[in-house]
Amino acid sequence: IVRSSSSAKQSLLRRSFSSSSSSVPERKVAILGAAGGIGQPLALLMKLNPLVSSLSLFDIANTPGVAADVGHINTRSEVVGYMGDDELAKALEGADLVIIPAGVPRKPGMTRDDLFNINAGIVKNLSSAIAKYCPHALVNMISNPVNSTVPIAAEIFKKAGMYDEKKLFGVTTLDVVRAKTFYAGKANVPVAEVNVPVIGGHAGVTILPLFSQATPQANLSADVLTALTKRTQDGGTEVVEAKAGKGSATLSMAYAGALFADACLKGLNGVPDVVECSYVQSTITELPFFASKVRLGKNGVEEVLDLGPLSDFEKEGLEALKPELKSSIEKGVKFANQ
Ligand code: NAI
């Protein structure tokens, strides 16, 4: 265990922080896979978040350095690094939110499903530990293939008798971030004002941006909308190819992960009308897990929102994504139960 500074100094810091921010509740956030390509910038961004009082950085290697480094930043949270399975319990105990970017990323030519064999096992083990050491925490799953890792976590939680479907989230925020950026470029509108829901799942054609609902509205041709949809679906592959074997999206993913975690913390703290897209247990289609707009609250998912009106192109996309998403869900469920 590596603390960011001496314990005496820590307790002084803690006292001064708690008196200066007494209206903001204490929140412990754990990042599992914190020394990785996503984990490190995500740790940085969560250290900058004033809603976090305790930041727990877990990985199987290299967390002492990351924790020492991030811990020197003069913001609210206390940072502690934990390394190796022996320290996983301490990393998780008391966590309000657990973010999981642990696992291997894609290389050129790989689909997210190609990661299944390695990452499914990692997610299974980490989920068992969450069930044991912080069963009430919200879980933000980043590890791919998200379409399968979320059902895996759900099954592991069910076996442990603590599954709460309101607390398990697949992080699809990067798809939304990409859809907003690409749309703003084509629609020639200020990117900061853009909103685009993205539904379905988080792999290839299962990613379905709803540009017909995008705001500010713009009159884009069918060809442009088709190209924007494809670019959003292939955004991850664009980065994998540009990195040429050195991994997948890490910086934009850390941004997206930090954005979603912040929304979860705001929800926990009772901030009203916090809505983000996420891949959650759902009844809005016949599929048991589906990404759509979700209202976040004190218990996690407060409401899974309707899809709203879809264009004919989007209706086709929705039907086309269902078989792949269904089989990815089934693959996850099967793995967790074997
Ligand atoms: P990376 O290889 O740079 O980092 C992964 C980290 O996980 C490493 O530090 C490794 O030591 C750690 N790790 C491995 N097994 C672990 C275990 N049992 N417990 C804790 N930590 C463990 O990979 P990167 O680029 O950070 O990607 C991580 C995951 O995020 C991949 O599965 C990737 O596909 C996924 N991803 C998800 C996105 C999304 O939109 N949801 C976007 C981009 C990547």
Question: Which key phrases capture this entry?
Answer:
Lactate/malate_DH_N, 7-stranded mixed β-sheet, 338 residues, alpha/beta, 3-stranded antiparallel β-sheet, 11 helices, binds 1,4-dihydronicotinamide adenine dinucleotide
Protein model, in words:
The protein is α/β, with parallel strands linked by helices and 338 residues long. The protein is 44% helix and 17% strand. It is built from 11 helices and 12 strands. The protein has helices spanning 7-20, 39-47, 63-71, 88-92, 116-133, 146-159, 173-187, 222-233, 235-243, 251-268, 312-337, and strands at residues 2-3, 28-32, 54-59, 78-83, 97-100, 138-141, 168-170, 198-200, 207-209, 274-281, 289-297, 300-304. The strands form 3 sheets. A 7-stranded mixed sheet has the order 1-4-3-2-5-6-7, sandwiched between helices. A 3-stranded antiparallel sheet has the order 10-11-12. Helix 2 (39-47) crosses helix 10 (251-268) and helix 6 packs across helix 11. Bound molecules: 1,4-dihydronicotinamide adenine dinucleotide. GO terms for molecular function: L-malate dehydrogenase (NAD+) activity. It catalyses: (S)-malate + NAD(+) = oxaloacetate + NADH + H(+). It holds the Pfam family Ldh_1_N. Residues 28-170 form the Lactate/malate dehydrogenase N-terminal domain.
